[in-house]
Amino acid sequence: MEPTEPLSIGEIAQRIQLVRGQRVVLDADLAAFYGETTKRFNQQVRRNLARFPADFMFQLDENELAALRLQFATLKTGRGQHSKYLPLVFTEHGAIMAATLLNSSRATAISVHVVRAFVELRAMLASNQALAQKVNTLERKVSTHERNIAELADSMAQLLHTPAEPAKRPIGFINPDDSSASKTTG
């Protein structure tokens, strides 16, 4: 089952899933990367369980498997298309440990690509977190600016709606009511 062309980091990265908050690779995908059948790969793993603590490898439960199947767009249908066993999943460290079990040059070469794929995903996650932090900073600034603009608009509205000062009374002996009468008589 030896693939003829080497896998790219992008192809490997597409097979990395998020399960239980960890980035993992399914046993079938890892076996295909290393050029082994899933059955033989899992036999090797089960013979060496001491090398795979819980943070290196774990078995999916039925709910997690169902959730993963919903994510696969090209899932084969029909009898005998799915494994009758719940799959194993391997973290980055578990994938490296699996390569040491197989003891082949292909497994060693592919393990380097698998590690690089995990590192690339970690870098993408870090850049996304930095971007999210910048967006949060900008949102806070915009919020502050909106408050300042609202305060400025309220102040301007108050200035526009202030009542005009009443007309001042003329100084002297002139009665403002009589001024119109005196102009007509005089």
Strand and helix layout:
Elements: H1 9-14, E1 16-19, E2 22-26, H2 27-34, H3 38-47, E3 57-59, H4 62-71, E4 88-90, H5 92-102, H6 105-160, H7 179-185
Antiparallel strand pairs: 1-2, 2-4, 3-4
Helix pairs in contact: 2-3, 5-6
InterPro entries: KilA-N_DNA-bd_domain (IPR018873)
Coiled coil: 121-155
Region (Disordered): 167-186
Overview features:
8% strand; KilA-N_DNA-bd_domain; alpha+beta; 186 residues; 4 strands
Task: Explain what this protein looks like in three dimensions.
With 186 residues, the protein is an alpha+beta fold. The protein has a domain at 9-124. The protein is 58% helix and 8% strand. The chain has helices at 9-14, 27-34, 38-47, 62-71, 92-102, 105-160, 179-185; strands at 16-19, 22-26, 57-59, 88-90. Residues 121-155 form a coiled coil. Residues 167-186 are annotated as: Disordered. Residues 15-100 form the KilA-N DNA-binding domain.
**What's the β-strand tally?**
4
Rg estimate, integer Å: 38 Å
Please report the number of helical segments: 7
Q: Spell the H/E element sequence.
A: HEEHHEHEHHH
Distance between the termini: 123 Å
- Overall pLDDT confidence: 77
Going across the biggest sheet, name each strand in turn.
1-2-4-3
Low-confidence stretches: none
Which class best fits the helix and strand makeup? alpha+beta
What is the helical fraction, as a range of percent? 55-70%
Sheet having the most strands: 4 strands, antiparallel
How much strand? 5-15%
Query: How would you sum up the global shape?
Result: rod-shaped
Give a short synopsis of this structure:
The chain is 58% helix and 8% strand. With 186 residues, the chain is of the alpha+beta class.
